[in-house]
TrEMBL record:
This is Alkane 1-monooxygenase. InterPro entries: AlkB/XylM, FA_desaturase_dom. Residues 103-324 form the Fatty acid desaturase domain. It is a multi-pass membrane protein. It comes from the Bacteria. Belongs to the fatty acid desaturase type 1 family. AlkB subfamily. The chain crosses the membrane at residues 36-53, 74-93, 105-123, 222-249. Pfam families: FA_desaturase. Keywords: Cell inner membrane, Cell membrane, Iron, Membrane, Metal-binding, Monooxygenase, Oxidoreductase, Transmembrane, Transmembrane helix. The keyword Cytoplasm does not apply. It is found in: Cell inner membrane.
Length: 370
């Protein structure tokens, strides 16, 4: 086993998410101001650590075998029961504790931050793997946030059409997050269904065939809601749905950041150029990459989607555009579109000048009609 992957100690920084569990326990059982602990940890503390710990530009050996990555993979494999315990344990306690509505909403906002910034990120890692068990874990994690179609949309649409008008989650230049979020919520379930329909047609099967994963998605999400009702009644269903919405918001905030304003050129033959490293924003910030299991090494993920997160490579600014700060802090900035545009639009314009100096009219790209 390569020395850099030899022990739990080597992998431990990527277990930063486990620090959320005692904070969740305090928030659930104490209420009051304790409910801010989870977002404070995921956003403020991680961003502060980014400043203190700086960048990590080390590239591990990408040929490292899966068996050498046991302690890295383990955190993604054990997260499902931990997250389910926090969500359903939170519903059980909160539905009996007599908390005020601000406390309930604050608590399940925090739980949603955990479900979105950790649970969906781990589901994203797992859904890209060939192992059947890992894909099932991804489906179960996505069912806990009522966003199961994300697997189909991400694998069949986003990775194929990133940087083109057919990819709804490639945020357009000058498009504010709030408008982007509404567009994605409206477009992505339909595009995921269409992609699965096309796949069934290619196999000579009806869209209603049991092999269509939408049957599984529906059953798992229904089961998740039934369990919430069994534990907490209609209040439990509401709290479960609220944390799911917050988690979805967290996911789409990340999607917004990852490709904002970065488009693939349409060639003379009408096709789009291949996906390159410069079609994704990257952030080498150490602590946020620990929390998000290297999601910020996003260019390499698009180059090699099934590459395990410890092996993802980082790129220099001459190859791929770099973000000024990590995802957690940048996500806060994205919630205020004027501040976001002030920080990011000059970077997009510099990217265009660097990689596409021959393009003079960017309007079709700006409005998604190129």
């Amino acid at each position: 086993m390569p020395a850099e992957f030899a022990s739990l100690r080597a992998a431990l920084p990527f277990w930063l998410s486990v620090g959320l569990l005692p904070l969740a326990l305090l928030a659930i059982t104490q209420g009051g101001w304790w409910v801010i602990l989870i977002p404070a940890y995921a956003w403020a503390l991680t961003s502060l650590l980014d400043v203190l710990l700086g960048h990590d530009t080390h590239n591990p050996d990408p040929e490292t075998e899966d068996e050498d990555l046991f302690w890295y993979r383990a955190i993604t494999l054990i997260w499902l029961p931990l997250q389910a315990l926090v969500i359903y344990g939170g519903i059980w306690w909160a539905s009996r504790a007599g908390y005020s509505w601000p406390e309930l909403l604050g608590l399940f906002f925090g739980i949603g931050v955990m479900s979105g910034s950790i649970g969906i990120v781990y589901a994203h890692e797992l859904m890209h793997q060939a192992d059947r068990m890992e894909r099932w874990l991804a489906d179960l994690l996505l069912a806990l946030v009522l966003y199961s179609h994300f697997r189909s949309e991400h694998l069949l649409v986003h990775h194929t059409h990133v940087g083109t008008p057919r990819d709804a989650v490639t945020a357009r230049y000058n498009e504010g997050f709030h408008r982007f979020f509404l567009r994605v919520l409206r477009s992505c379930p339909a595009s995921a269904w269409q992609a699965e329909t096309a796949r069934q047609n290619r196999a000579g099967r009806s869209v209603w065939h049991l092999s269509n994963p939408f049957w599984r998605y529906t059953a798992l999400q229904a089961l998740a809601l039934v369990l919430a009702y069994a534990i907490g009644g209609w209040l439990g269903v509401f709290l479960f749905a609220f944390q799911a919405f917050v988690a979805i918001w967290q996911l789409e905030l990340t999607n917004y950041i990852e490709h904002y304003g970065l488009t693939r050129e349409r060639l003379a033959n009408g096709k789009f150029e291949p996906v390159r490293p410069h079609h994704s924003w990257n952030a080498p910030h150490r602590a946020s990459n620990w929390l998000l299991i290297n999601l910020q090494r996003h260019s390499d993920h698009h180059y090699k989607p099934d590459r395990r997160f410890p092996l993802l490579q980082t790129y220099g600014e001459d190859e791929a555009p770099l973000l000024p700060i990590g995802y957690p802090a940048l996500g806060v900035l994205a919630m205020v579109p004027p501040l976001w545009r002030r920080r990011m639009n000059p970077r997009v314009r510099a990217w265009r000048k660097r990689h596409y100096p021959a393009i003079s009219d960017w309007m079709p790209y700006n409005i998604g009609q190129h």
